[in-house]
Amino acid sequence: MKFIKTIVAAALLSSVAFMGQSEEFMSDHAIPTDLAAAGIVESDFSQSLTTGVRILEEKNWNVWGVSPIKGEDGKIHVFFSRWRGTHGHWLSHSEIAHAVADKPEGPYTVMGTVLAGRGGEYWDADTIHNPTIQKVGDKYALFFIGNNLGKAKDFDGHHASTQRIGLAVSDSLYGPFERVSDEPILDISANKADWDSYLTTNPALLQHPNGEYWLYYKAWDRYNDNMRKMGVAISSKIEGPYLKHEKNPLVSFSNIKKQVEDAYVYFSNNTYYMVMRDMGVIHPHVGLMLESDDGINWSSPMLGYKTNTHYTDEKKIQRMERPQVLMEDGKPEYLFMALMGGKQNTSSGVVLKLD
Predict the structure, then answer these.
(1) What pLDDT sits at residue 329?
(2) Who contacts 299 (Cβ-Cβ below 8 Å, separation ≥6)?
């Protein structure tokens, strides 16, 4: 792993230098055709990705954050965010819905709403967003983020200041899903000097080989360097309490003035993997992949996935975010993401197959 870190660290420096080059070095896919010549190391994960297809293109709906799971019925179930109106309405109108298909590529039948904002004084009064689903024992755990825009004035007034992480569980993928608490499952730190004292968001659950539950999350270090970073909180029970790790934040690109965004973490072949949307380390329309021997100390980033134009017949480069991985027998089989644009010119899901 030390050797890998050394090679990737060199690649990171080359990638950052590449960002300052002229457009003549860019391909039609917004990244160089010859990655090696540009000093960009492509992960095995990225090299394994093949064709992609949009899913859940619904009229009058924006779709985001598609989290897949294979059910005991043999079908593919996805839990996703959706809302009507402009894309910015995710801040106030997003809900989590459920859809089912016979195969990952669809077509999907939407079953209906799973969770919505509770209104009133609840911490998740308004929007319910960015779900991630896993089977835990004989139950299904659905992590999500929520907010209460009316309470933003109690912080600094910014819409993000009330974003927190919650958890709902069910005996069946068909529901009902019930919140485990009226409070967030992972709250902010009370000390403003801490990196996660502003918000907790974008959960990624790892069921650790040792039996613990590792909840990776993003926070905005607004009161220090104003950068977004990743950390982890650990519990012996799925419903918590979750103890934040002393080495947090675990992943930060603040040394090059870049942000961390939307990570998914999985364990395969005795290695921990973290795939996330890139916020400018290589290019803001691709993804990053990090590796770890222990889930705490992470390598420098490699290319995790390319642009949507590389996998589909689309010509316009659009944002692909919130990666979620469908695992089969301990190996990644499909990458699910959110993708702007599409037939409805809103946003939809997209599924990429791993070869």
Answers:
(1) 92
(2) 1, 4, 5, 8, 290, 291, 292
Distance (Å, whole) CA 204 – CA 232: 9
**Positive or negative torsion for Cα 78, 85, 130, 349:** positive
Mean pLDDT of 64-77: 97
All structural domains of the chain, each given as residue ranges with its CATH number in brackets, are 45-354 (2.115.10.20)
Q: How many CA atoms lie within 13 A of 298 on its CB side?
A: 27
The pLDDT tens digits of the residues spanning 15-69 come to: 443 343 333 334 578 889 899 999 999 999 999 999 999 999 999 999 999 999 9
Each residue of 125-178: pLDDT tens digit? 999 999 999 999 999 999 999 999 999 999 999 999 999 999 999 999 999 999
pLDDT at 172: 98
| Nearest of 49, 46, 108, 43 to residue 334 by alpha carbon | 49
First to last CA, the chain: 24
* Unique residue bearing structure tokens 């992943």: 251
- pLDDT, mean over the chain: 92
- Residue 255's pLDDT is what? 96
Distance CA 265, CA 337 (A): 14
Between CA 44 and CA 2 the distance in angstroms is 18
Q: Where are the beta strands (DSSP E) in 159-262?
A: 164-170, 178-179, 201-207, 213-221, 227-235, 243-244
Burial class (CB in 10 A: 0-12, 13-18, 19+), 265: buried
Percent of the chain with pLDDT over 70: 92
Asked whether the predicted pLDDT for residue 264 surpasses 60, the reply is yes
Task: Count other C-beta atoms under 10 Å from residue 347's C-beta.
Answer: 27
Dihedral sign (CA 318, 321, 325, 326) = negative
Question: Which residues, 6+ apart, have CB-to-CB distance to 203 below 8 Å?
Answer: 130, 132, 143, 144, 145, 165, 186, 215, 216, 217
